[in-house]
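Researcher: Here's a chain I'd like modeled. Treat it as a single chain, no partners, no ligands.
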Amino acid sequence: MTARGLRLRSVETLRLPFRDPFRIARALDDRGATTVIVELEDGEGRLGLGEGYPDAYYGETPETIGAVLPLLLRALGPLGPLPGTTAGARAWLSAAADAMAATIAHHGAAKCALDIALHDLAGQGLGLGLPELLGTPRRVPPTDFTIGLDEPATVARRAALASDFPALKIKLGGPQDLLTLESVRAVYGGPIRVDANTAWQPAGARELIPDLVRLGVELVEQPFPAHRLADLRTFQAACPLPVVADESAIEVGGHDGAL
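Model: Modeled as a single isolated chain. Structure tokens:
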């Protein structure tokens, strides 16, 4: 399994148990996560590490990652070895992502794992950290803390414990969504983002809009099933908050119908 000096050295599946159950509206397993660690070796013996999360919702498993990785790696052969300059490495990595995308549709976890390992190797070869390799500022961008679907009191308790985070993402899609949001807002004053993970219905979502605004929700993520793009557009037209597609946009260029 080589591509011009690159060799897939190992593919390891890890099971990561959760301390607390983490549920989302469409989850199959709320007590742990399975992740795949990829080890890629270059011609100098350097090892690049990558990671991919095989989400069953998208039809991915550790086995599909293991099966697709050799195919993706072979697709990089025509690109030649990683260049020894920063500009060359950036262009090569961009071309590698395009080659993987053209080789097989979907399989985002396998592509992600290989892409991360390639960036690791490129940075090692140039003696650069990832920010320098990509030409981006060396700072940690702000992010949110995600709290899974649960009883409103439990979600509020976890929100209070996470009050130092600059924003919270609250998973919704259950029978007590409004009470959950009100309970969180009572203990947390920062930005709240909500993610229904495809579980809402259009009529119920429209009824929630005034309360979402009243409670200071910052954005709404993937309210409806991925294929219901017309409902997504109609909701966005009625909702003053940003509506973000996730499950509806799983490939570069695949989001056009959601706009």
